Amino acid sequence: MSTLESLDHKKAGGWKQRLQQLLALAGLLVIFAAFSVVAPTTFPTYNNITNILFSAVVVGCLAMGATLVIVTAGIDLSCGTGMALSAVMAATFMVTLHLPVWLGIILTLMFGAVLGFVNGTLVTVLGLPPFIATLATMMICQGLALVVSNVHPIYFDSTGEHASYQWLSTGTIIPGFPNAIIMLVLATAVAFVLFNKTILGRYDVSIGSNLEATALSGVNVRKWLIAIYAVAGVFTALGGIMISARLGSAQPQTGSGYEMQAIAATVIGGTSLAGGKGSIIGTLIGALIISVINNGLQIIMLPQQWQNVVLGVVIVIVVFIDQLRNRQGRTS
């Protein structure tokens, strides 16, 4: 391929990514409009929009990490239960060990990095397929969350020493605008810079596009894959911090199912399950779509079991579209 052809190929890829983001944004607006028509007195209200954004915070944080992993052609099934375990560890640091809030947050984020490091090590050092490795850690995290918490929620002191912790989510720096939404914006900005402006992001795409060629070029693929999984673990821990700060407690049994929502949000936003392509802004839009769907189905009082059916159908459709996109990419 000549230099001119390579540039044309990159430009075409850039336009396709922007088109995918525009389609995802259009889909978000259409879904929002549809629920607004069905439930005009409850769905498009300010309070409900705030609830939608609140819900998008946790899914969005998990999806940011999932994007980095999926771009490598990997997967992280442990982010949901890892989030629950991180929330339990945050409560353990602050409530059980009585550590300062700021130190508890730092230790929780470090704990998330360790979880990601374990996933990356299982994939790179032991050579386990990402699906199997993270399925195992998903079950381990689920069990550890119950063991560490003794199968009981751990409550924060909302009016005392932990008031600042809950302020991270439910407080308002900007009047009428919960801090949790600001945290999501900051998380998106950090993920965007990591993915688009750093060497980690470049190697992320390179590994997902062609792992063997990346290794032959002298890149320590094992080291960078572990680093990518570790960074994804930090976003998982951030999700745990945000959900526990909002609830005022660490619920050890939460988290199941969040991994599917995070993966769906990532793929909706234009990240390919085949690896090599991703979009942080698209992932944010995907998280908002998942949140709008969940909220809208609750507003129209669809039974929980049918909500799961609808979300499952959405995931099937999204993955099918991703496969079609990959086939078109190979034939073009």
Secondary structure blueprint with pairings:
Layout: H1 3-38, H2 46-71, H3 79-96, H4 101-124, H5 130-149, E1 154-155, H6 163-170, H7 179-197, H8 199-209, H9 211-216, H10 221-247, E2 249-250, H11 258-268, H12 280-299, H13 304-331
Antiparallel strand pairs: 1-2
**Secondary-structure element series:** HHHHHEHHHHHEHHH
Chain-averaged pLDDT:
88
CATH topology: ABC transporter involved in vitamin B12 uptake, BtuC
Architecture (CATH level 2) name: Orthogonal Bundle
Number of individual domains: 1
By DSSP, the count of extended strands is 2
Shape descriptor reads globular
Biggest sheet details: 2 strands, antiparallel
Could you name the CATH class? Mainly Alpha
Low-confidence stretches: 1-12
From the helix content, strand content and strand pairing, which structural class follows?
Answer: mainly alpha
Percentage of residues in DSSP E strands: under 5%
Helix content: over 70%
- Total helices: the number is 13
- The strands making up the biggest β-sheet line up spatially as 1-2
How many whole angstroms does the radius of gyration measure? 20 Å
Distance between the termini: 14 Å
Describe what is shown at a glance.
With 332 residues, the protein is mostly helical.
What does this structure look like?
This protein is an all-alpha fold. It has a single domain, classed as ABC transporter involved in vitamin B12 uptake, BtuC, CATH 1.10.3470. The protein is built from 13 helices and two strands, in the order αααααβαααααβααα. It has a two-stranded antiparallel ribbon. Helix 11 (258-268) packs parallel to helix 13 (304-331). The longest helix has 36 residues, at 3-38. The protein is globular, with a radius of gyration of 20 Å. It starts with a helix and ends with a helix. The model is unreliable at 1-12 (pLDDT under 50).
